[in-house]
Each structure stands twice: as C-alpha cells, then as structure tokens.
Amino acid sequence: EKFALFPLRTGKLSTGSMVETYVGPDGRRPLKRASEDIVVQVTEPPAANRPVGLRQGDVGQFQISALVQPRRVEEGGSVAVTVRVTGAGNFPTNLAIPERTGIEWLEPEKKESIEPRNGEVAGFRSFGYVVRLTNKGSVDLGTIELPHWNPRARRYEVARTVLGTVEVTPGAN
After folding, report:
1. Where does the pLDDT of residue 1 fall: very low under 50, low under 70, confident under 90, or very high at 90 and above?
2. β-strands 120-133, 137-140: how paired?
3. Residue 49 — φ and ψ, nearest 5°?
4. Up-side HSE of residue 101: CA atoms within 13 Å toward CB?
5. Is the model's pLDDT at 104 over the cut of 80?
6. CA dihedral defined by 42, 48, 49, 55, rounded to 10 degrees?
7. How far apart are CA 50 and CA 125, in angstroms?
8. Residues 107 and 97 sit within 8 Å (Cβ to Cβ)
9. Cross-strand partners of 96
C-alpha cells in the first residue's frame, strides 16, 4: 500500500511500523507482518521571501478560482461565493477571507475530490460561502490569497483570486 506523508514539523520524524495480519496458507493460523519504521529528516522551507499569511503545512502546487453569484442584491441580502483550490499537495483546510466592513462571511460548506494520482495527492477542494452584504453601493469583496511553498519549483508562491464587486441596492423598506 502507499500512503501520503505530509510532515507538519521539522526534525527527524518517525512513521512507526505498520502491522498487518494475514491468513496463513492453511487458512487458520494468522501471520503477522510488520513494515520497517521509516525515519524522515524534515527541514523548514527558507525564511527568505516567505510571504505574509503563510500557514505551516500549505505545501504543493495550487491554483485558486472563484465564482460570485449574483452580482446585484438588495441591502441586507446575500451572495454565494464558491472558491475552488485545485492542484497537488497538502490542500488547505480553510482559507483566509478578506475582512471588510459591511460584509459577513458564514462558515463555508466544503467539497473535495482529492486522491493519489501518478505518485502525488491531487484534485480539488471547494469552499462555498454565503456572504451577507449590509452596505449599499458598489461593494468590493476583495481578494482571496493562498500563500504556499511549491517544493517542485523550490520557491514560495501565492495563488490568488479577485472576487470583484457586487452592486448592493437600497432595501425596499
């Protein structure tokens, strides 16, 4: 079997041994087999050029995109913002959302399809937010950024998507 290993701290890290029990050739006696304990020396990516907001463990090759619907709502109304992270690596479990006055982000609904592909963990994770808008006018939702270490390129990168603006019209009352 193959397992993905995403170390979250530095140093000499031990996987421990994996023990499996198989049915013996006679069909009755169990046979136990154990793997070797693997020790991995983990180093931290360089401190130079580390982007602001980098979270430990955000390692891979990622792209990020977003869909905002609708683009016109009444004051106090809501829009749906779906942010999709695609690529390969240790996918983030949450995103840093832009904080703005008059914009309330609810907890996201997460969906994913992440699996081993050609020796790496790849796929997508999406975050579906409901965003309530309380200020009228042209409201800029900001930009979502995902700073990460790209081990293939051996450099820091920042995947980003601009959410754009929503036109918030005065409420009926």
Report:
1. low
2. unpaired
3. 65, 20
4. 3
5. yes
6. 40
7. 24
8. no
9. 145
Residue the block writes with tokens 């409201």: 139
Question: Taking the model in full, what pTM does it have?
Answer: 0.83
How many other C-beta atoms can be found within 10 angstroms of the C-beta atom of residue 120?
Answer: 13
- Residue 173: predicted pLDDT: 60
| Res. 87: pLDDT tops 80 | yes
CA proximity to 83, closest of 166, 142, 154: 142
CA-CA distances (angstroms) from residue 15 to 20, 27, 39, 57, 144? 15, 31, 6, 17, 35
Residue 103 exposed, middle or buried by CB count within 10 Å (0-12, 13-18, 19+) = buried
Alpha-carbon distance of 100 to 160, in angstroms, equals 17
pLDDT tens-digit map of 118-140? 888 999 999 999 999 999 999 99
**Cβ atoms of 85 and 64 closer than 8 Å:** yes
Mean pLDDT for the chain? 92
Beta bridge partners of 69: 80
pLDDT, residue 137, reads 95
Q: For residue 35, which amino acid is it?
A: S
Nearest to 153 by CA among 93, 88, 96: 88
Nearest by Cα to 149 from 10, 28, 45: 45
